[in-house]
Queue: 2 jobs
Job 1
Amino acid sequence: MQPAHAATLQAHARARSELDFSDRRDFEDARRGFVATLPDAHIEADAGGVAWSMRPYAFVRGPAPDSVHPSLWRMAQLNAEHGLYQVSDRIWQVRGFSLANVTFVEGEHGVIVIDPLQFTEHARAAWRLYRAHRGERAVSAMIYTHSHRDHYGGVRGVIGDDELRRGVPVIAPLRFTEESFSESMLAGVPMRRRAMFQFGWGLEPGPMGQVDCGLGKAVGSGRDGFIPPTMLIREPQERHVIDGVEIVFHLTPGTEAPAEMNLHFPGLRALNLAENACHTMHNLCPLRGAKTRDALAWSQYLDEALECFVPQADVLVLQHHWPVWGGARIAEYVAGQRDLYRYLHDQTLRLMSHGRVPTEIAAELMLPSALARQWFARGYYGAVAHNVAAIYAHYLGPYEGHPGQLDRLPPVQAAARYVAYMGGADAVLARARADFERGDFRWVAEVLSHVVFAEPGHLQARRLCADALEQLGYQAESATWRNAYLLGARELRQPGRAAAPRNVSISPDVIAVLPLGNFLDYLAIRVDGPKAQSLKARIDWVLVDGDSEDCRRITLSNGSLHHRPGRHGTDADVTVRTTRAQLARISAGRTALLAALDTAELAVEGQPAVLRELVLALDEFEPMFGVVDRERPGAPGRQTAA
Ligand SMILES: [Zn+2]
């Protein structure tokens, strides 16, 4: 790791002069109503190790170090607060025990729990802390505001089969289950690898490493659960009385998550905007990757909330960060968040209409200065440039319109040609060194990416590229950009790839409720098209689930696997019968499936050879695929002297 460059110090000085660091209201709000906490919010994992801890973040104190953007440092301090907080008479939150917040609303007989955090251990610790101070209350309802895992994966830390038998409702927005499966399963492999960069997994916390994630301190780890909803909110607005508490559910599909809803508590004069508002500019497409989000719908739903609910709210509760108190401040805050997404949307579309492409729009688009000075509009999680690209892609897709880009060379081939045209790697490196000294880190990172792709063994190019990424990381206000830059730098400097992240398998809770069709879609994306192109098969796949059976008829043709409800019956080449426990095992991939076939663990009728051929044509994925390079130095064939 290198110290901050003079150009980085200048960038930080500029940021300090443009922002009002004397405004400390957020710190007061983040601490308001504090009741108690666990020492360092330290939570052990059931499987051993640490599920969550603020201990590694003890360094987040005092003035910003040279290696952290001062505004991000401010957020890193705010996100280091943790504990149980009383928000209003009957609303409590535990914050800083997970990436997100859990909210407890005290009803007539029990507690309505909103968003039970990401892991069982996080949620259990939060629930225990709450009950230690508020008595042994029971859960009267569970609410998931949206389909992202940081808001529901910890549900088993709060409720279990007892509560479900008692009829405790689990309430979620329409399409909650489908959307939570769709996002995490089909694109799960690349998403997890890219999430490493977004959240800085593998980076050590420290002034020159990971300091925050923008929405919260970190992701943490632990046991993952899923309890499907028992009650879906289907109408644009639905009014229900839950445990004596009136709640207006406000569906906001296609905003921050595909399935999401706000909650208004008229009797408590409280509003919960789920993750549609946070104390940051959010992402219209996170760095991990997602289907792009609709900035226009997002701003429109915030506008609806501003009109329908804000006048009847004295406190605004959010599912990340701290609450906002007072009618006037809530109105200003919600209007500002609304304006933020509308402005990004409209101005991107305006500049697109001048023929600009995302990099040009990002260079030109400036937020209105009054909005840009609001702390809640700063890009700690999202970033203007990335959001502009997401809006562009949302409307026009990835192609920027220049026909010269229609059939571009893949990155390694292009890199080799660039480097050759520029006079070879050493010539590029010499010029890049001069640019680095001038502080032109963006360009150095770009040009040296070509050298590293062309000559992965060129250690000096790797080091200088890493140095440039590192300075960009130090300069980034966005925590996710910082994490990505610093992990990129680390992977360039390290000879081998880090170990794959934990929690890569599908949770047993998900397997327990996963529709067979979703499993088969998961299987279908593993079919290696070229290997399977001449295979033809008709397979009946039966899922035996206790007393009931679900069957789908699979057709394999032209390397593509289709499935429909029903059976081929006597036309089937082969029939497979599996239990849910078997699905869990074989979802691990080809090797597990082959083993199940070889040991006759799977009940197969007809021609097992047909099934075997299909299994042999399944692909295996390398979860730690290359991002900042395609090959590591030392890999056979491409070694180049440094
Ligand atoms: Zn979240």
Job 2
Amino acid sequence: MAEVKTQGAVEAMEVAEASRETEWEKPSFVGQLFLGNLDVDLIHPFPEQPAEDKAVGDEFLPKLERFLAENVDADKIDEQGEYDYELFDGFTKLGAWGMKIPKEYGGLGFSATNYNRAIGMVATWCGSTVAWLSADQSIGVPQPLQLFGTKEQKEKWLPRLAKGAISAFALTEPGVGSDPAKMQTRAVPSPDGKGWILNGEKLWCTNGLKAEVIVVMAQTPPKVVKGKEKKQISAFILEMNTPGIEIKHRCQFMGLRGIGNVLIDFKDVFIPKENLLWNEGQGLKLALITLNTGRLTIPAGCAAGGRRMLDIAQDWANERVQWGAPIGKHEAVAAKIAWMASHTFAMEAIVWLTSGLSDRGEVDLRLEAAMAKLFNTETAWQCADHLVQIRGGRGYETGRSLRERGEKGYPVERILRDMRINRIFEGTSEIQHLFIAREAVDPHMKRGYKILQPETPAKEKLAAAAKAGAHYAAWYPSRYLGWSHFPKFGEFGPLSGHMGYIERTSRHLSRSIFHSMMRYQAKLERKQMVLFRIVDIGTDLFAMSAAISYATMLAKKGQKNAIDLADVFCREARMRIDANFSNLFTDHDDAAYRLVLKLLKGDYDWFKGQMVEPVVPTAEQVEEAVRKLA
Ligand SMILES: Cc1cc2nc3c(=O)[nH]c(=O)nc-3n(C[C@H](O)[C@H](O)[C@H](O)COP(=O)(O)OP(=O)(O)OC[C@H]3O[C@@H](n4cnc5c(N)ncnc54)[C@H](O)[C@@H]3O)c2cc1C
């Protein structure tokens, strides 16, 4: 029943593995959590924004807010499926294209916290605007340029970008999305030795429509390392006015209808030598690090969106009376609002925790950022769904239609449409799960790798087994030992019980990861249903830790009822965690997988029933359409 690994799959895995960041130079809260160690000191006291830095954001945000409220008509942008490009100048005057660019290069030099505060504010108003700003700065040229550019490269491009030259990030292709290692776009050295010649195409490049400069990833000629040919992927900065670049299609979407997202064709495009970013062969690593580093932006937008949705829910739940009571007092509606409030609190805790820690730069946030992306995008989507339900028929009606018939024009259906993509772009939820799972099992993999490899000589296998045995003889029993009850974690007051639960459960989780390794051995990497439950447990534990630390800080500052938000969140998360443990190894998984293999093969085609089949155009009709387009 195990699927066959094709040569292509093996190659893609090898390239992806080679591009993985393997070093852990700084401590990782979540990394330790998976090993059964709760290192509370890494997240508590909560990393509050320093007053000086807060003042910088406080000065900028009201200006941004006024500009959005007075100029950005989010409904109109959505309806016409086109952005209002005159707004770009206004953003330039605000300095919004250079929020993340250091002051020395003409940017605003914002901290991660201030940048995410600004992105959050925009997210409560217009999803398309967030996408323009975020694709430009979170993943577009400024991000990899600051991380990997030379001094000359930074001096050449950063001031231009800060002044509003739009940028974009081009990784995805029609044939490769989640596994970019198999990209087909190629760059070969130009015959005159002055640069590279690029050929291929890139799909769904956000901002590509207006971008002056993009970062593009392409295969460069393979290199022979230790006698074996190694695929190379490199990253380049590309000026979009270079001959040979053609925007072949403007993509239209369910939501974010004002973004400039395109399919780009490259035909013999010359890229000067000095535009290579970082080193040849390190382009995929650069792309993955860029995405990891920029990954906190989407969670920030989701958390702020959560607050906006809660605000609408609160208003409507008070105002709308059905069956003799405001709908918010009917328990089924109250349950949804409680979920939204408590989970929005957790989303916000995660965002300010990770932003604060990122600004301090003392911890490794790779896993936390992936969890933030996973948790906040899934949670915000669920909030949007709850909100549509709470608004009833009005949740399905457009804001304009509501306004035109004299009601409050809450754009709930637009929020839902705009929100959906967050679970897909910059790494889908499934890919975040896989990334986190890979790191969760890594400490055990490293110890077991030689033992599990069939080609390892017996003598080496024995030595590795003895070494691993000695380690686990001490480690495994220690994962049963610990003290998590009062007075431990007393500083968390009413939430100390939940912190104790996290401590006990992290040890339980570490044992379960170990049991999974023993049970499935090398096949564990394919047991995604098990791995995903492990990741979901870890993610809920992280969200609980963040919420508890955040609420404790807020309560100390006088916001005492923040404790209730964290408490309700922890209760809900604990129910999910307990359910995930109960079902960790269930025979449902095999039954479900077997069913799908049969379904994919066509065994259930009888079940399809009668459907209207689309009319397939004839070859002549296609030719005619192409002729008309040309
Ligand atoms: C609006 C929008 C904006 C975008 N902006 C950009 C951009 O600016 N730059 C850019 O480079 N790209 C961009 N993208 C591309 C985006 O990042 C990809 O859509 C995303 O990475 C997923 O790739 P895919 O759509 O090809 O899905 P696929 O990779 O084909 O995946 C399809 C489904 O299979 C799942 N899946 C795939 N592999 C596995 C696996 N091994 N295990 C389990 N499940 C798996 C996925 O999670 C998904 O659910 C954008 C896309 C959209 C729609």
